[in-house]
Amino acid sequence: MRKDSLYKLLQKSESTGLLCNQSAWNTESGKYTFQWLSSFGRLSTVFIPEHGLFGELQDQQKLDDVSIYKHLDEKVEWVSLYSSNHTLTATNEQLTKLDTLVIDLQDTGSRYYTFTSTVWLLLKKITTLCLSPKIIVLDKPNPAGRQVEGTRIMKDYASFIGMEGLPHRHGLTMGELCRYFKHKLNADWDLIICPVNKKQARFIAPSPNIPYVSTCSLYSGQCLWEGTNISEGRGTTQPFEMIGAPFLNWVFKEDWNNKKHPAFNANCLVRPLRFIPVFHKFANEACYGLQLLPGQKQAYHSLAHTLQLLKYVKEKSPGFAWRPGHYEAFNDKKAIELLTGDKLLFDFLENKAGWKEVKLKLKEEENGWIKEASPFLVYKSSLQKLKLN
Fold it and tell me: Would you list the DSSP string of 4-15?
């Protein structure tokens, strides 16, 4: 859509809602999207996802007091969609008054990332209420690219960190995801996608523990460590790039980059190291662990590698344990079950299934997702899958 056409459309709106955070910043104007929309005098509501408006809150930290943003625009209603009320979406009244909803969020390309679930829940509620606002997506590049990884999550494993039907790494932009969601909901509201301008696009960290573009290429696999008692690197400057625990001091005895090692990966070097997280798991304790260093030019299947690493570390470490207790909304299964989202993958980690079975399942599911999702692509580049060894 031409920029002037978008201006005209937004100027006609009587009441516009905006779902955004700090990644909604325009390089050309130097303004946040909420500032830009406010200039039309039509912005009524700003919806804020997990991590706060400026990504200042840690994972699973609720935002209940939105008055901290009131000084930014006194006329706007600021609404937290990640608060203690446990609904994780807008109210009927907040949605009914809107004739336009603008979505401007940086996704990471993996289904665990809750922004995807937040968008799905909003669109689902709009559809359920039989509302017909214009949905405008200010699209951004998928920082994890077009690569597809993993299995499509089944209903029994679906939760706020994995909406039913999505694979671990989906390869779509937020605009394309919304096209897929609209089809899935059989909705009749208008969806307008403003294509990304790659020359103007800049990656702005969408949350505290996704600091770099490169983090997104590791996240589809490394997020599985959240389901364990091993640190996934939160509390350091390189979350999801390295993992560790005080009881992993044996890692220095391993030849991780030897082709005969059970967790060897030709496209990723593994470096043993020591680090001290300043918060989260093992805060202020010395941890021994591993840093992953994928090749810059090689294709790397993060999920497959992490599954092999996790299984090996689990078997070698007497102190290893699965993360206990309730983990995420909409499902009471333990964290590792929700993150793997597939019984076969979990069975592999529990040494109840072999790698050949897993490899075949990944191949079938990744091909299946590419076939299912390709009709909803907006851009010329196609979805891709890797050949697993």
Answer: HHHHHHHHH-SS
